[in-house]
Amino acid sequence: MWGDEQQRRAVRERFKLLLNSHHTELEPRQRRVHEGELLLAQGEPGFQLMLLTEGRVAIQLRHHDNAAHTLTVLEAEELLGEMALFGDGRHSADVRVVEGSAELIEVSSDAVLRAMLFDTDLAMELLGLLSQRCQHSNALLGMLLDAIAATSRRDTATLQAITAQMLPLDHGLAAAADQLLKLVD
After folding, report:
1. For residue 43, what is the domain's CATH number?
2. What residues make up the domain containing 49?
3. Does the residue 169 lie in any domain?
4. Number of other residues whose CB lies within 10 A of the CB of residue 79
5. Does the residue 170 lie in any domain?
6. Cis ω on the peptide bond leading into residue 77 (within 30° of 0)?
7. Count of Cβ atoms closer than 10 Å to residue 67 Cβ
8. What's the number of domains the chain is made of?
9. What's CA 123's distance to the chain center, in Å?
10. Rounded CA gap, 178 and 157, in Å?
């Protein structure tokens, strides 16, 4: 859902290899978490990178009303917290366990950054993954802006087409487009 599966698989496999070959330096920690537990909090400093090995998590944004808006739901095996490795070092969204418990492997962000100094392939794959996620988000934003424009024109046919196009890509934004449809009706 968040990009090219082949590239995501390469990043996961490289990360697993890194965990195995640098187990002592990275000190990975396995963790089981329960439904509803917040793994990463939007705006908080990112101190760890996680590999979700079992279960599902929701990526959620909070803004003006502080209500959580689900962008997507990710399943095992996905990396979590990688966006905070770069930029200002803060999480850009909440990550919450949904639909049962989850299991993950957690590693210190500092340890991962040190390891990336010696494994440039890992660094490039992580940057490629981040780039894909940004491109995916840009495409979804473009569709949402088109949906808003169609709503202002009261163009139900275009709005329905955009909603149908968004649904397999992102449930949360498709729901927002559905709400726009209700405004036109």
Report:
1. 2.60.120.10
2. 5-118
3. no
4. 21
5. no
6. yes
7. 9
8. 1
9. 18
10. 12
